[in-house]
Amino acid sequence: MTRGRAALELPPGDEPRTRDLQEHHQLVSLIVDGRAAEAAQLMRGHITHGLTATAISALEDREGIRVT
Q1: What is the end-to-end Cα distance of the chain in Å, rounded?
Q2: What percent of the chain has a predicted confidence (pLDDT) above 70?
Q3: How far is CA 53 from CA 47, 58, 59, in A?
Q4: CB of 57 closer than 8 Å to CB of 68
């Protein structure tokens, strides 16, 4: 059996990377300020909609698979 190689493709442009970096800074600020509930909410959104999730979704679409 031949194994293919899968690679994540990041979306073009700086906006997704800039957004992720800003969210990382916001998370640190919220944690330092003791605002755990807000940090948790931002983190859930970051995991669901961040750059890595976007890249994984694009790979799944390209490969015709869905990882849950």
Answers
A1: 25
A2: 82
A3: 7, 9, 10
A4: no
Count of helices and strands (H, E) across the chain = 3, 0
Is residue 8 within 8 Å of residue 59, measured between CB atoms?
yes
30 with 40: CB under 8 angstroms?
no
Q: Tokens 């605002």 map to which residue?
A: 35
| Tokens at 35, concatenated | 């605002």
Rounded-to-integer distance, Cα 11 and Cα 52, Å: 10
CA 7 from centre of chain: 15
| Residue 35: CA count within 13 A, CB half-sphere | 11
User: To the nearest whole number, what is the mean pLDDT of the chain?
Assistant: 81
Q: Which residue has the higher pLDDT, 13 or 30?
A: 30
- In this structure, the number of other CB atoms found within 10 A of the CB of residue 50 comes to 16
